[in-house]
Amino acid sequence: MSEDKYKKFKGYKFAPNTYKVTGDAIRAYAKATGDLKPEYTDPDDSKIIAPPSFLSVIFLPSFYGAGKLAEEGIIKDFTKLLHGGQRYEYYQPIRPGDVLVSQVEVVDMYVKNEMLFMIFDIPIKKQDDTLVGKVVTTAIVRKGGF
User: What pLDDT digit, counting tens, does each position of 92-106 carry?
Assistant: First the structure.
């Protein structure tokens, strides 16, 4: 497959994903991750915020659009897909009642050492377009998977 096929996906955006934050979801996440600070677990929703890593709950469903990469012949075998790392940026607290929208954008896609590297940018915004956080993640497809 030529590099041009990959370059055409630069800037491609998956369908947006909407997530309504609840106090129960924040407390459950805090319990599951063992981060039981009072600001994450208080029974009063007006007193809690989400732990920073809660961004994972919001952005992961955004990748449902990855099927488009399979349809286009970019990813042929998802068993060859690896997590290459990620970086989180936090801009403001996430609170119960927030309705957040995340949308994956392909920042770059290239072949190196017989592997396909895909870099994704995922801004997470409130419905009023206020940016609360951002995730940059890298996925790698091993030889034979693309």
Answer: 999 999 999 999 999
CATH code that applies to domain 3-22+62-141: 3.10.129.10
Which positions ≥6 away from 72 have C-beta within 8 Å?
A: 5, 9
Domain ranges of the chain: 3-22+62-141
- Classify each residue of 60-75 as buried b or exposed e, where b means 16 or more C-beta atoms within 10 Å of its C-beta: eebbebbeebeeeebb
Angle at 7 between CA 6 and CA 12, to 5 degrees: 90
Residue 80: strand pairing partners: none
Q: For residues 106 and 11, is the Cβ–Cβ distance under 8 A? A: yes
Share of the chain above pLDDT 70, in %: 98
If we measure between CA atoms, which residue out of 19, 7, 42, 31 comes closest to residue 116? 7
What are the tens digits of pLDDT across the range 40-90?
Answer: 999 999 999 999 999 999 988 887 777 788 888 889 998 999 999 999 999
